[in-house]
Amino acid sequence: GETGDTLVVAPGQDVSLEIAWRNNLSDKLGDAVLTLTLDGDGIDEKTIKSSTGFYDSAKNTLTWDKRSVSEFSVLEAGESGRAIVNFTTLSSEKMGGKNLNPEVHLGVSLRGVPIGNSDTAEIVATESEGLLKFVTDASLSTIALHDSGTITNIGPMPPKVETETTYTILWSIASSINDISGSTVTAKLPPYIVWKGVTEPADEDVTYDQSTGLITWTVGTVRAGAGYTNPFRELAFQVGLTPSVNQIGVAPVLIEDATLKATDGFAGVSVGYTTEARTTLLGDDPNFDEGDDRVV
């Protein structure tokens, strides 16, 4: 993007910033100096690079002058050009729950001495501002459990034909640096999986459509820092599997892909995340024994 814009960037993103400059005076401009000021948090300063500019970390400024840009010795009236700055934003792990609603204000100025003007004092030929806003890293995880978690399950392990075994599905939402609102999580149960109607916490807004197998969790707002410096926003619920004879030797799917949709109001963008389906292979359950995933 160019300065003058509001540019939305993500944590851990490689950014290439293009600075457009122009001598707006009717006179030539001598000893021109272009300055970019970066005011705010969220940029990894060690990664700031420009092939022709110098970054002063004490002042948070990049400077271009005639020593690195030959045209800056004398700029013709109306002469213009561009400078490129590359950097990487801080990761969610470094910002999550610490730098809330981060943004970086960009200030650009082009200064120099007019040539052919009786007033030889340095003046500003061009000045503009821009803004970097950081979108939150919103994520969703889905894990399946049997012997762990807050819900008590029943049934044989490994699952047995024509005998019900229940499982806990746990959804966990994280949001690194900004609140997200209007959040929903949806997923479908396969036709052989039964919704047991047990949820934890019990007061979460969860619906199940038996005709389609669709589970909808109306989450609402998830606060910045959830899953980082604060607890995840979580929902656990119970499902039942009564295997059929044609599922012997198979690790059945317990729940299909789950999708989080939300809005990052600070950055002004939609965010989302999708997790893969989960089977009876309970890799996240510390009490799971190898071989207990396949129907017998």
Explain what you see.
By secondary structure, the protein is mostly beta strands. Helix content is 1%, strand content 50%. The strands form five sheets. Strands 1, 3, 4, 5, 6, 8 and 9 form a seven-stranded mixed sheet that branches. Strands 14-15-12-18-19 form a five-stranded antiparallel sheet, with no helix packed on it. A hairpin with a 4-residue loop joins strand 14 and strand 15. The N and C termini lie far apart (59 Å). The mean pLDDT is 93.
Secondary-structure map with pairings?
Blueprint: E1 6-9, E2 14-22, E3 28-40, E4 54-56, E5 61-64, E6 74-75, E7 80-88, H1 92-95, E8 103-115, E9 123-134, E10 138-145, E11 165-175, E12 180-188, E13 193-200, E14 205-209, E15 214-222, E16 233-241, E17 253-255, E18 258-264, E19 269-275, E20 278-279
Parallel strand pairs: 1-9
Antiparallel strand pairs: 2-7, 3-5, 3-6, 3-8, 4-5, 8-9, 10-11, 11-16, 12-15, 12-18, 13-16, 14-15, 17-20, 18-19
Spatial shape: rod-shaped
C-alpha-based Rg, rounded: 28 Å
- Mean pLDDT, rounded to whole units? 93
Order of helices and strands: EEEEEEEHEEEEEEEEEEEEE
Main sheet makeup: 7 strands, mixed
Question: N-to-C terminal Cα separation, in Å?
Answer: 59 Å
Which residues form runs of ≥5 with pLDDT under 50?
A: none
Number of helices: 1
Q: How many DSSP-defined strands?
A: 20
**What fraction strand?**
over 45%
- Give the proportion of residues in helices: under 10%
- Secondary structure category: mainly beta
Keyphrases for this structure?
five-stranded antiparallel beta sheet, 296 residues, 1% helix, single chain, mainly beta, 1 helix, 20 strands
